[in-house]
Structure formats: structure tokens, C-alpha cells
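seq as requested:
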Amino acid sequence: MFTPMRQPLPKFQFTHQLPYGAVVHDDGVQFVIFSRHASEMRLLLYQSVEDTEPTEIITFDPASDRWGDIWSIFVPQISFGQLYHFQANGPNDPDRGLRFHPNARLIDPYAKALAGTFQQSRDGIIRPPKCVVVDDHFDWGGDRHLRRDMSESVIYEMHVKGFTQHPSSGVAHPGTYLGVIEKIPYLQSLGVTAVELMPVHEFPILAMDGAASDKPNYWGYDPLAFFAPHRGYAAGSEPGSQVVEFKQMVKSLHEAGIEVILDVVFNHTCEGNNRGPVLSFKGLENPVYYMLENDKRNYKNYSGCGNTINGNHPIVREMIFHCLRHWVHNYHVDGFRFDLASILSRDRNGELVPNPPLVEAIGEDPLLADTKIIAEAWDAAGAYQVGSFGDDRWAEWNGRYRDDIRGYWRGDHGTRGPLATRLAGSADLYQPGGRPPCCSINFVTSHDGFTLNDLVSYCEKQNLANGENNRDGDNNNYSENFGIEGPTDEPQVNQLRLRQIKNILTTLMLSQGVPMLVAGDEFQRTQQGNNNAYCQDNEISWLDWDLVNENSELVRFCRSLIEFRRHQPTVRRHHFLTGVADSEDCWPDVSWYNPRGTSIDWHTDALPILCLLAAPLEHRDSEILGRDVLLMFNSSHESAEFVIPKIANPRRWHLFIDTAAESPQDIYPNLDGPVLDSERACPLPLKSLKVYVAGN
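C-alpha cells:
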């Protein structure tokens, strides 16, 4: 039974700047929501998460509680922790794109936290988790954004739950924000400068009928509430505990010198297509929040997930700005990676446009000026904007880097030139637009695809566990198994696979641009060949921390690589390499040679290549000493010998990396390896590389 509506509600004037959502004042809460076509608006209040019915229903008076298309009402004597939904009535006219349902319980688009799960109902209407009135106060202790220069970044992509959920993690709060805090010493020891968290905004935990799902949305790319941290990653059970715990995680990471980048999904929601549920946006103003087909009944689907957010509509654009600012101001996050960001370049008709307003405005927003903004510069409808997304404020996941590096180390013909281009910072993609090398986020693996271990262990994806008869996931992986598909006890195969992992890690960390490492690749994490583990909330996806000890030699190798990168400006320049000397007494900043030590012919299919990098002139006499670096690559299936170019002979070269050598001779962290005999040809086994560093 409902309790009688409190009467009369006090009149609330807009004496403060008008926000959206639930705004707490000294003596009550103001609720503000947008809906243009609603004829009625109601506020549903609950006492507990388990309530199936509201304890109070408050009806907005259109004459006094509506200002334009904004509905606003002040409710006294409630405060933090209050649970609520909205309920809107209006035309249910799909031919006009309107899908109001008078009984639907709606999540506030600006809700700062959700509580509970989906509940079953007698009327068949899905009851989503309840919104929570949140206390934003938190003792940050003077914490601020770290403001690390993008060129100095080493990004570590990770899943909050999967990072510590495995029993081997040994943390007190597995699978949570607090669990991440417990593993910060490991992140510090590895040397990464930023964690890029897979989606942490709210998404459905269970199936929307309240039952456990055979295919849970483990990755989280199915948004439910953009402003709210995911409740499933909280250790506490009190409504809103995820807000405090997320802030504790960010504060702790900052204290360790590690930035926090969020993977945000402003391209679709979990409401799906015309057959999907009415949970929030659909029931408030469907044709504003979503791109609709000409018939207004169906949804444009550039996301591949059933609907597409109408990001360049002014109302939605405003919401996205409020959301980004919310995470930056209230949670102190240091940046964002925009999933399927090309959708942000589409106008309200779905057409790609030059200088899209939303993309430009994000880059120019003053409150975001200290943050990193990274685009996944493609979408599910064929747009591919790598190299041309936004201006120099925007960095990009460089998909061409991934493909070219994979192709080179697999031994594909014609990949020597692409290797050189990617190693040098992808000037072909970013220099024409006046963008620096740090706009290229270099990666070889990501959450989407094979792990690095599986990239060198499988030729074919193994996705049967996903329940789609192995049809899902990318078929073009540029992978190699070295004669045996999957795990093997064959020593020679395992030796070659480990060598390939070291080859790829070295290439990644010594390339101009910004490297991104996927959590667990540094200790040979496997997904058993699954290259699309979006629904695998189990040991396929969780990090097995026993591998850190089992593969400690590889962890040492990766840690030493990251340390070298962070201390060597030679491999993370602010400007593109030119092939021209900085001064008369210096080498060219980069020069390329064939195994004979002479000028390279880029038109041949040969794979071995030698690269000579000169230290930046501005660092030769500074406290940050740059080193000249000599790199030899051989991705062919035959051994090679390299004659050292005459220009390099005067230097005393110390071996830094030899991926064909056994640990600990595979890497010399102190740069004190054996000296190169430049008078003799240097042997390089098949599928290996060597790196030498000039002595000071």
C-alpha cells in the first residue's frame, strides 16, 4: 500500500544554478529531470533496496513544477541514501519515436549511484535497480590530478573485477575497487604510470528478469547509468558504498603516482532496440536520446548493440559534458578512453561530419584541460578514423600499429616498411594533422582479442564457450601457433613463443608514441584461445596471480623494459623523427640499414632491419641523459647476421636486450651487458631482436 502523498509540498524556486538529478539541500532534496513530451511526471520513493513497491509517490504539478522541458520538485525531510525512480506518462506513439509507458520505473539519467538489481513484477514491466541520493563529500586530503605528460605515459588496461577476483590474488576484497588498492604495490613495481579501467559506469549485473545469466555482461560495455560507479565492484553492501570506495581507489592510486583513465561508452545503452526494455532514456524522451531510423520505430545501429546514442543532439551533448565533468571533479579521474568514438562524429542523421561539435567541444572544455582524452577511432558501421580523429588534444588507439606489428613478427611479406613507420611514431597518420607522436596509443593486444600469450599460441580463435558456435570474435588475428595449436609441453615451441612475446613487448615499449599493455600480458595470461571473452566472468578472464611467480623471468623482462622507457627520452620524443641530424656533430635522429650495414631498399620483401636512434640533442647535457640506441630486428624464419654501420663504429655499445638468450642474459637493466664487437658481424637468430645502448 502507498502512503498518502505529503501535502502540500513547498514551492521551490531556482535560487541556485539549475543542475539535473537529485540535488541535496539542507532541508531536503531537489529532483530535476528533462522530458519534452511527457504529460505527467512522478517521483517514486523507497525505504529499502528490497522494496518492490514505492512507499510514497509524488506527482509533479505541470503548472508549478515544470519550467520549459525541465521538471523540478523539492521534497523536504529526505537526504542522502534516499532511494528513488522517476515515472513518466506521455504518448506511446512509435511512429513519432515516442515510447512512454505509465507504469515503467525509470532510472534518473543523472543518477550518481544505483542499488539492488532488476526485480520481477506482476505486470511484466522490468523494474531496474533503484537510484540513490548520494553524498558527494569525501576527504581527498589535497589530492589533485597528476597531470603527467602524455609522452611519459605507460598505460595498463585492466578490468576492476578480473584484476583480483581469482583466488590466487590473495586480497581481502577480491573483485572490487578495494581489491585494486591492495595490488597497487605490484603496479608500482611494474612501473606503469596509468591504469585504463574497462567500463566502471553502471551496467546490468544479472539478466533483466532478475535471474542469473548464462552470458553475463562481464566487460561492462552495456551502459545503464553514466554518472554512477558500478555497484558490483563495491565491497560494501550499503547503497552508495561504491561511491566512497571508488574515490578511495583513485586517491590511493594517485598517492602511488598512477593516473586513472576510464573507458566510457557514450555510443549506446542497454535499452537495446525497439524490442528492448524501457528503463530510462526511452521512457523520458526517446527521439532525443537515440538516433532513430526514418520510420521513427527503429533505431540506427552504428554500435552493433541495437541502438545508438544521439551524441550531437544539444540535450545529449550537455549530458555527456556534465558526465565527464562529474567524473573529473567528483572522482578526480585523469582521463577517458571513448569506446567506438567515431559515433561521436556522426550528426543526428548518422552522417559523419567534419569538425563534429561534440568532439571539438570535449577537446576545448576548460574543466577537462588537465585530462587525457583517447579515442577508439572507429565504430561498428564501417567508420575508421585512425589518424584523423579530432585535433592534437585527442590521442587514438592506433589499430594500424596493432596490425602492422603483429604482421611483422608473424613474418608477413612486405611488413618491414610498416614496422619502421610504426616504430617511429606513425608519422603517416598523425604528422599531416600537426599532431605529435604521443597521439598514437600503441598496442598489440587489448581486452578485445587474443592475449599476448594466445597471440603466439593459437592460429584460430577458440570461442565455443561463448555459446555462439565460434561465430563471434575477429577471424583476422595475425597470430601464429608455431606448429601446435594451444598449450604444449614441447620445449622448442614454448621457447619460440616466449621469444615472440619478448619481441613484441620490446617493440611496443621502444616505439615512439604511448604504449598500452594489457593486464596479465607481462606474465603470460591466457584466455585459452578465446578472443572475445565479453561474457566470461570466470577463470578464462580473471588474472591468475600464480603466473607472476611461474613466469617471474618475463615479469622481470617487462619491468626492466618499462623502466628503460621511462628514463630514456630517445624512445619517447615529443616530435617526429626526421632522419636529419640535430647538429653538425650529431647523427641523424633515426637511420635505417639492411643486414649488410648499408642503406635499406624499402621495396624488397626482406624482413631483417637495423635501426639507429640518436639521443635528443636537448638531453645530451641535461640531468635526463638520453642514450643512442641500436636496434636489430629479425622476424624471418631464418637466422641473420648484421654488419654494424660505419656511422655507429665509434660508439661503445652495451647489450641491453637479446630476446633469443635465456634469462637473465635476455635483458640487462643496468645497461651493462656485453660490449658489441663492431668489427664483426652480429648474429641474430630467427624470430629475435637485439638492442644495444651506447655508453656515456
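The chain has a mean pLDDT of 94.
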